[in-house]
Specification:
The complex is a heterodimer.
Chain A lengths: L2 H31 L4 H9 L8 H11 L6 H13 L14 H37 L1 H16 L2 H15 L19 H38 L2 H8 L4 H26 L5 H7 L4 H10 L3 H29 L1 H7 L4
Helix pairs in contact in A: 1-13, 5-6, 5-8, 5-10, 5-13, 6-8, 7-8, 7-11, 8-10, 10-13, 11-12, 12-13, 13-14
Chain B lengths: L2 H23 L11 E5 L39 E3 L6 E3 L2 E8 L2 E6 L13 H13 L11 E8 L2 E6 L6 H10 L5 H8 L3 H6 L11 E6 L3 E6 L16 E5 L4 H9 L5 E2 L12 E3 L9 E3 L2 E4 L9 H10 L2 H8 L24 H7 L5 H11 L3 E2 L5 E2 L7 E5 L5 H17 L2 E5 L3 H10 L4 E4 L10 H8 L23 H10 L3 H18 L2 E3 L3 E2 L4 E3 L3 E2 L16 H6 L1 E2 L1
Parallel strand pairs in B: 1-10, 1-11, 17-18, 17-19
Antiparallel strand pairs in B: 2-3, 4-5, 5-7, 6-7, 8-9, 9-10, 11-22, 12-22, 13-21, 14-19, 14-20, 15-16, 23-24
Classes of the chains: A mainly alpha, B alpha+beta.
């Protein structure tokens, strides 16, 4: 590793630490700026059977239990210390479950649903986009219009259409859940197939949109590259289509990598609407319900994971850029 | 490009084949047998985190919606008795009989042979222990100790509840006797000894109850119960028909309703729009309003706000609202048009409902009358925007709020806004997130708020009158109140409320409620908008049949009690 590259990495690392600290602080204060108090909603549910003179005592008991009676800076310090100990606290609305347990249950589903959809969508979309730019003509027109249409459909609309057509009108797919209700998760071939059966529709609804979006972006990039001198030169030399396409692809890829990193970073936040439409397990509904209940620890826990993932993804992209493209590394470390 | 369509067709064909193959695999996956499993929905929305009935968010069937012992009584834990919302009667559960030996003393005898699921006997000591948890700690049953003084256990199967003679209220005690889950002292004593925090944190993942089911498994997707074939009351009450009961945890109402329509759910507690159009799906009543009214969503009127502090303005507003339209649209015909009374006119409370009283002092949808009050009694003038302005310059413009996502409640407020505007009162709607709205309501920070008040139960409508009209122990605006949210007060109310609470005959109660209802209608601290069932009740008969209905009641009430699971039969 050259000294410039090491300096480049260290500077980056320092910036990311500052960003992390700022995000963690916002993470604590932003949910608390929302008017209302998590205990109010809890009490309303608690007292639905009937309130008595003891209600204010119960209210105080909850305030104490959640440490909301401590001064804000004290809560903040405790929060910082606990983060470094890996303790995200207990959820208010799903008391007494630990936030780490709740997130741990949901994250595998979210990653299993989103990671393949994003990666496959990215690869297929880029290939199709580059191909369209290169082939032009009818193929390009058809593909461009289709991709544009797909990328402009809100992903929840496609999800609802898919659900209606393939789970209600022609019920070949199940309408809800990560696996059949009344079935128990286990390491077996039959359970895997059952889970796959539930997986395909939500997966497809994300994949199709991802392909469309990537193809549109890649096509414009590739058309730009195709007009460049090196392509003309290579074509005039009689280099094969495949090879030219390979060059074009690699050059048009750079901005697409940034896009990929960002979507990989945010994917742990879950695909809320997809989860709701297909009643699919995941982080999205966990976060949504936490926000609806002012459940500070759970909101903080989920957003913390999103923050870390986004920063990490960006850092990796910076590293990759530095490694792939010497121009960037040189520019950032002050060399010309 | 000829290649593309061909490969696309091939891809689609492969996809369809895969779908069909996968559709067949459910048969081979290790699944509970459908003919032994009943699927229930609509009680649990988030991951189950505890089965502790004293906690703030117990999972179904120990808590579910937070309404204790309504939607899971007898499944794992049992109550002493069950209240029947159809006829107002009391049905035995752990208790054999209850008698008021004096006006302030209730004696309960337990059924012979009551036993915990671990084989230990269930005695009067367990009952005393459970109730006294509410005295020693701040838990959801604590409110009964506002009225209860002590509990005696003369022998192992007799419990004597002594009310505070200074505040006799037999109805409230009966409500708790019907809804408190009795807990085993031999398990919970050790938890209680560790104090309040430990008690609320106790997860109780393997609950030992006395009922017909045990928890077989649970995760964020479903809760599975398994029948307890050693149930102490199997000769007395019989065992449930299904061996397993599964509650899938859906992410939305729509997903649950779709599952009900497709027959994956057998029994559901959800708002289903146009339920009469669903094939194979039945409800308690076979025609409108399909459900039993159980509560009154109440538009609280903030009597402290300028404009609304004038009772004539409140009255004009009450006359302007199109109640039949709310029942038709917002409530999907599941409600009759709301009357101006705190008493539900149909069902078990009809014995207290005084139609003449309501006709004389109440209101109904009458825009002409509303205009008449505004113009001839208040001498208000219409501004250029069509909105009335009082002689003191107050423009009649208010905000009506209810939590976002309570769809039928939101729709009801939209009707209020439309019909008030048609008369000349400007009402705009506001739908904040639930915690924000609840905070506004409790601290009194609202003009008009659609909120819930006590529903049908052994002490109804007493608790509803208390919720709307009793200003005692209510903190000032800005602090959290848990009833009388608009801080309305009337000096005549407390004495009448105590009289109604202590009354022992129907006639006495009806007279006191009539007086209170009259004050309510004269002062208009709130406007009833519609009637809602306590819990929704729909069933799909493609696998299980013989669900109790009004035509086929089988002596049970449609309250999600264990009785229904004993009545169902395999198709």
């Amino acid at each position: 590793m050259s000294p410039t590259f090491r300096r480049y990495i260290l500077t980056k690392l320092a910036w990311y630490l500052v960003a992390l600290l700022a995000a963690v602080t916002l993470n604590f204060f932003l949910p608390r700026l929302v008017p209302g108090n998590p205990v109010d909603a809890l009490m309303a549910r608690f007292l639905q059977g009937g309130a008595g003179a003891s209600a204010s005592k119960t209210y105080q008991a909850f305030i104490t239990q959640f440490h909301l009676d401590r001064p804000l800076w004290g809560q903040f310090l405790a929060y910082l210390v606990n983060i470094f100990r890996g303790d995200l606290g207990q959820s208010f609305s799903l008391f007494p479950a630990r936030v780490t347990t709740l997130i741990g249950q949901a994250v595998p589903w979210t990653i299993a649903l989103q990671l393949p959809a994003i990666l496959l969508g990215w690869i297929l979309g880029n290939l199709l986009g580059a191909l369209a730019a290169y082939k032009r003509g009818a193929f390009d027109r058809n593909l461009f219009v289709t991709a544009l249409a797909l990328s402009s459909i809100p992903y929840y609309a496609l999800a609802i259409v898919l659900l209606y057509v393939l789970a209600v009108a022609i019920p070949v797919f199940p309408s809800a859940g990560g696996y059949s209700f009344g079935t128990f998760p286990q390491l077996s071939w039959s359970f895997f197939l059952d889970a796959l059966h539930h997986y395909l529709l939500p997966f497809l609804s994300l994949l199709v949109i991802a392909i469309g979006g990537q193809a549109v972006g890649m096509r414009s990039m590739a058309i730009y590259e195709l007009g460049s001198d090196y392509v003309n030169y290579a074509t005039s030399l009689g280099v094969s289509d495949r090879r030219v396409l390979g060059y074009v692809f690699r050059n048009a890829m750079l901005p697409q990598i940034t896009g990929l990193a960002l979507s990989l970073g945010t994917l742990v936040g879950g695909a809320l609407i997809t989860e709701i439409v297909f009643s699919y397990p995941g982080v999205g509904t966990l976060l949504f319900n936490a926000i609806n209940a002012n459940d500070y620890p759970l909101i903080q826990g989920v957003t913390l994971i999103i923050i870390v993932a986004v920063l990490l993804a960006n850092f990796l992209v910076d590293l990759a850029y530095g490694a792939i493209d010497p121009r960037i590394r040189a520019a950032r470390s002050g060399e010309r | 490009m000829i290649e593309r369509p061909r490969s696309l067709t091939r891809l689609l064909a492969a996809f369809a084949a895969l779908a069909l193959v996968l559709a067949g695999t459910t048969v081979f996956a290790q699944t509970l047998p459908r003919n032994e499993t009943l699927y229930i929905g609509g009680h649990q929305w988030g991951p189950p985190t505890n089965f502790n009935p004293l906690s703030s968010s117990p999972a179904w069937p120990v808590g579910g919606n937070g309404q204790m012992a309504i939607n899971g009584a007898g499944y794992i834990y049992e109550t002493l008795f069950l209240s029947n919302i159809i006829n107002g009667g009391t049905e035995p559960a752990l208790g054999h009989d209850m008698t008021w030996t004096t006006p302030t003393q209730l004696t309960v005898h337990l059924q012979p042979g009551t036993m915990w699921q671990d084989g230990q006997p269930l005695t009067s000591a367990d009952v005393k222990f459970t109730f006294e948890l509410g005295k020693d700690f701040s838990v959801s049953t604590s409110a009964v100790w506002d009225y209860l003084q002590s509990i005696d256990t003369p022998d192992a199967s007799t419990v004597v509840f002594n009310l505070d003679p200074a505040r006799p209220n037999p109805g409230v005690l009966e409500r708790y006797v019907d809804t408190v889950y009795i807990l085993p002292q031999h398990i919970w004593q050790a938890v209680a000894d560790q104090g309040q925090q430990a008690l609320l944190q106790y997860e109780n993942f393997q609950p030992v109850g006395s009922g017909s089911f045990t928890v077989q498994s649970y995760n964020a997707e479903q809760i599975v119960l398994q029948r307890n074939d050693n149930y102490w009351g199997k000769d007395l009450y019989g065992l449930p028909t299904p061996k397993y009961v599964v509650h899938p945890i859906f992410k939305s109402n729509d997903a649950g309703n779709l599952a009900l329509q497709q027959g994956q759910l057998d029994w559901s507690q959800q708002f289903v729009p146009n339920v009469w159009t669903m094939k194979n799906v039945g409800t308690w009543l076979s025609s409108e309003p399909y459900y039993i009214p159980g509560s009154i969503p109440m538009m609280l009127v903030n009597v402290q706000r300028k404009g609304l502090d004038n009772v004539l303005v409140r009255r004009a507003l009450a006359y302007s609202i199109n109640y039949p339209l709310i029942a038709q649209t917002a409530m999907s015909r599941y409600s009759e048009p709301a009357k101006s009374s705190l008493i539900i006119p149909t069902g078990v409370e009809s014995q207290y409902f005084d139609a003449a009283n309501v006709d004389e002092f109440g209101w109904s949808y009458d825009p002409a009358k509303a205009k008449d009050i505004l113009e001839n009694q208040l001498h208000a003038k219409k501004g250029s925007d069509g909105i009335y302005v009082l002689p003191d310059g107050t423009r009649l413009s208010f905000v009506a709020q209810t939590p976002y996502g309570w769809t039928d409640w939101m729709a009801a407020l939209q009707v209020v806004a439309q019909s008030a505007k048609a008369v000349g009162i400007d009402v705009t709607t506001n739908f904040p997130q639930a915690p924000v709205d609840i905070n506004d309501v409790q601290t009194g920070n609202f003009d008009l708020a659609l909120f819930y008040i006590s529903g049908v139960g052994p002490d109804a409508p007493w608790a509803r009158f208390r919720d709307m009209m009793d200003n005692r122990s209510v903190p000032a605006m800005g602090q959290n109140a848990f009833w009388d949210y608009n801080r309305y007060s009337n000096p005549a109310v407390p004495a009448l409320l105590d009289k109604a609470g202590a009354a022992t005959t129907i006639a006495e109660k009806k007279a006191a409620y009539g007086e209170l209802d009259k004050i309510f209608m004269q002062d208009v601290p709130g406007i009833p908008l519609m009637y809602r069932p306590l819990l929704f009740y729909e069933f799909n008969t493609s696998v299980w049949t013989n669900f109790p209905t009004a035509d086929n009641p089988q002596g049970t009430s449609p309250q999600w009690y264990i009785d229904v699971l004993r009545d169902v039969k395999l198709k």
